[in-house]
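Sequence in, structure out.
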Amino acid sequence: MATPVTPMLQMGALAVPLTGTTSAYCGTGCQPAFGTCGTSTTNPGAPVQSGCVWVVNGVGSFTHQQTFDFSQLSSFPTTGLSISTDTIGAGSSPYSQLYTKANVQVTGGSLQLKVPGGQSASPILGAEVYTTDNDILYGSVRTTMEVSSVAGTCHGAFFYKADNQETDIEILTGNLASGQHDTNQNVVLGGQSTTSTNPLPSDATTAFHEYRLDWLSDRTEFYLDGVLQQTLTANVPSEAGTWLWNNWSNGDQAWSAGPPAQDDILKIGKIDMYYNRTGSAGTC
């Protein structure tokens, strides 16, 4: 687990320790009228709202929070998330891609991102959703999801600004034994990315698990069901951007493989986000 640190208010490049009744945030500090400082007594790992920020134990404090609990929804959210319709060129891969609204559904208590089975020509249809906030700078984002058992796609939960400003959780359904791929893409175009892997749960394709990515100014941290798996300190993104979730295939046998023979569906039960924005200081 991460070593506890003094909670910090991180707004862009600003980092201010939050101690006692400091006026470092909201002008009021940690006052009873605005909530309780410290760690939750009911769930010690859960973030706690303190005044106008959410304190993530051992990580820091963030000015914005959103939760999308798809077990409580019957349709796609009307605010906070959007569905991508982007086209992705093939490059050196066998197929180009197209994200479509038809492959995004909220049903059966989850958000389902589908790559239809049996495709054999470009573009390969897939699914992607993203935050409408496109100025996220640092955050702690937890995605509860069930991985598809159908080979031939890549599942992604990641931050993206540009190809050299990106940090990813990725899972290859055709190579589940390779585990969860945790990557900071190279900040210098043409350079070497920083990546590591950790094993997936044995029931990753039959049960929901929480995959968490914390992006801070000096590191990214990757958790599985609340347990720290990896810390990466090189190629850490530094520019504000968007959080995304997708399921895709371009036929690259060295990565996504596929396209899948049957429908390949990534199920997302819940997204829980704590983050800062460069264009908004929060609710205070």
